[in-house]
């Protein structure tokens, strides 16, 4: 996939960092026949332009005791969508939350420890919020892919 507004070198830099966010600027420079300083300046420009938002790691939640990945569809009264979304975004178990089209639905992914943790989260955290109308819960059976949302 070719991205508009950035050249081929920047696309290669992004591709390498998506594959390995710890890759050094020196190593990227070696692979692209550029200096470490040139790579650093390009990465800084990509960050400044908002193309690269942050650098992060992916943790295996199961190995840390969060073995129940769950997706929620939270239907909310329209006037409460923002307050419910903001409140749920503050919960440490919530991985991501998006407002979706349709009947004021929030799509949320959370990592929980076990079934009692799920029950507590559902009734004490979600349904406790004013404006929540209905919640659909989907437990993850198997993951086929987890990406960054952009594959180059």
Automatic annotation (TrEMBL):
<dbReference type="GO" id="GO:0043200">
    <property type="term" value="P:response to amino acid"/>
</dbReference>
<dbReference type="InterPro" id="IPR011991">
    <property type="entry name" value="ArsR-like_HTH"/>
</dbReference>
<dbReference type="InterPro" id="IPR019887">
    <property type="entry name" value="Tscrpt_reg_AsnC/Lrp_C"/>
</dbReference>
<dbReference type="InterPro" id="IPR036390">
    <property type="entry name" value="WH_DNA-bd_sf"/>
</dbReference>
<keyword id="KW-0805">Transcription regulation</keyword>
<dbReference type="GO" id="GO:0043565">
    <property type="term" value="F:sequence-specific DNA binding"/>
</dbReference>
<dbReference type="InterPro" id="IPR000485">
    <property type="entry name" value="AsnC-type_HTH_dom"/>
</dbReference>
<protein>
    <submittedName>
        <fullName>AsnC family transcriptional regulator</fullName>
    </submittedName>
</protein>
<dbReference type="Pfam" id="PF13404">
    <property type="entry name" value="HTH_AsnC-type"/>
</dbReference>
<dbReference type="InterPro" id="IPR011008">
    <property type="entry name" value="Dimeric_a/b-barrel"/>
</dbReference>
<dbReference type="Pfam" id="PF01037">
    <property type="entry name" value="AsnC_trans_reg"/>
</dbReference>
<keyword id="KW-0238">DNA-binding</keyword>
<keyword id="KW-0804">Transcription</keyword>
<feature type="domain" description="HTH asnC-type">
    <location>
        <begin position="6"/>
        <end position="67"/>
    </location>
</feature>
<dbReference type="GO" id="GO:0005829">
    <property type="term" value="C:cytosol"/>
</dbReference>
<dbReference type="InterPro" id="IPR019888">
    <property type="entry name" value="Tscrpt_reg_AsnC-like"/>
</dbReference>
<dbReference type="InterPro" id="IPR036388">
    <property type="entry name" value="WH-like_DNA-bd_sf"/>
</dbReference>
